[in-house]
Amino acid sequence: MYNLFSFKPSSHNLDLLYNQISPPAVANAVVNTEYEVNRRLQRYVMVATYTCMGGFKLRDPLNTQLFCRSMVWGADVWPDCIAEDDLCEIDNGGCAHYCTPQGKNRYACSCQEGFNLASDAKTCKDANECAIDNGGCEQECFNTFGSFFCSCRDGFAPKDFACIGEFVQAELLGVSQAS
């Protein structure tokens, strides 16, 4: 039996002591595995340290390692390699909704439907759909945050963007207006 702390690890004899499981691949990274002593648990732990390939960098430089415990690799935050020139990868490029890379160190922000890009080209403000052609509504248009809805005056019922009057509804139902 080996004394754990006087035992000099090598990949061959540690593989005999522990079942080795390969570390997971991280896109655009190379991995180096080694065994480290965990004195608290009094055993060796397999550690995978990731380094990003050329043109990529770690999203968080403090998160470079995964640890194998009970045949499962894990960490609080997994290493992640992002393109060095993709500004959208960091805080969404400062864009409120969408960030689209536009080449080396360039990007463009855009907004979800119902919003317009503000003058700072990053934040999104509510679009007033009712301001143009009454939003397509026949009678009343009400703007809401990120959307709108159509409404009809008393005596009319909504149908899509149109309003159907009471007399038209009666005709559609086959009810005679004359009595």
Automatic annotation (TrEMBL):
| SMART domains on file | EGF (SM00181), EGF_CA (SM00179)
Give the source's domain of life in one word.
Eukaryota
The residues covered by the EGF-like domain are 109-124
Name the keywords, alphabetized. Disulfide bond, EGF-like domain, Repeat, Signal
A Pfam match is FXa_inhibition
> Per its UniProt record, what InterPro entries does this chain match?
ECM_structural_protein, EGF, EGF-like_Ca-bd_dom, EGF_Ca-bd_CS
Provide a Gene Ontology MF annotation, just one: calcium ion binding
Question: Under what name is this protein listed?
Answer: EGF-like domain-containing protein
Species of origin = Elysia chlorotica (Eastern emerald elysia)
